[in-house]
UniProtKB/TrEMBL annotation:
The chain crosses the membrane at residues 55-75, 120-142, 154-173, 179-197, 204-222, 228-245, 271-292. This is Rhomboid family intramembrane serine protease. The lineage of its organism: Bacteria, Bacillati, Actinomycetota, Actinomycetes, Micrococcales. It holds the Pfam family Rhomboid. It comes from Citricoccus muralis. Belongs to the peptidase S54 family.
Amino acid sequence: MSYVRCQRCDRPACPQCQRSAEVGVQCVDCVASAQRNLPAEHRPPRFADKHGQPIPVVTYVLIALCGLAYVAQWATNGLSTGVTESLWYAGFYTSAASLDSQFAALSGIGFEPWRMLTSAFLHSMSSPMHLLLNMVVLWMMGRTLEPALGWARFLAIYLISAFGGSVAVLLLANPLAPVVGASGAVYGLFAALFLMIRRIGGSVVSIGALIAVNLVISVVWSGISWQAHVGGLVVGAACAAVLLFQPKSDQTLVGAEEAAQRRRRIRRRQWWGLAGVVVILMVITAIGAMQITPESLLAARG
């Protein structure tokens, strides 16, 4: 008969089932339960190479989707319902004018807000380098950020930054000029990497210079949507700040279970913070939409 009880469930634990922990002796069942409840960043990576290094699966999936979309763009090039024309974005698609049924019927374009995200998976058909450069940078950023943040938060930064780039296009660009490209999302990853390096006390000179040079090229080089780049950069920085700059927990005063609970609370705050960024972008989108009326579109066309 065992006179030693588990400090978590208070059940008797025989010598073979006892496990030492920070808060005393625990049974094997409670230890296994605690390990299952650990946050993703404290678990072994689900996908790893033969050396145990995490594989950035979401990064590769995003690259594959952009590549497949590019193939589809070429396959449907010249069609009236081609992939490029069906998924690119311009301010008109989320404007007050597109909600005007009479004007939308005359123009043949309606209210299609999903284009604010789908355009981030398309690239310029006249310049394959547009796709190549974006995918190379995405691969470089993803290899560092996805394992550090976790696949879900990495994907959230990518998609919300793409949304932010489209919001900037809505506010600052010609509402009739369509845009494509993952650049807004990639610039959001630039901002996230900058803040992550800053958070751990590393030098941000190199990444800062890279961002500055690319922004200058975006403004000087014709045919590049600098609005999407700036929008993605600003929104990516906001998302990264929500994830990285959370209050630190005092781990010296709590046990493993309490520490795990605090980590779960931090994750909840992070996701609520990201949701707040999305809500703000939606409000800004509504405000920008009201500025694009049938009259302003006729003026822009003329």
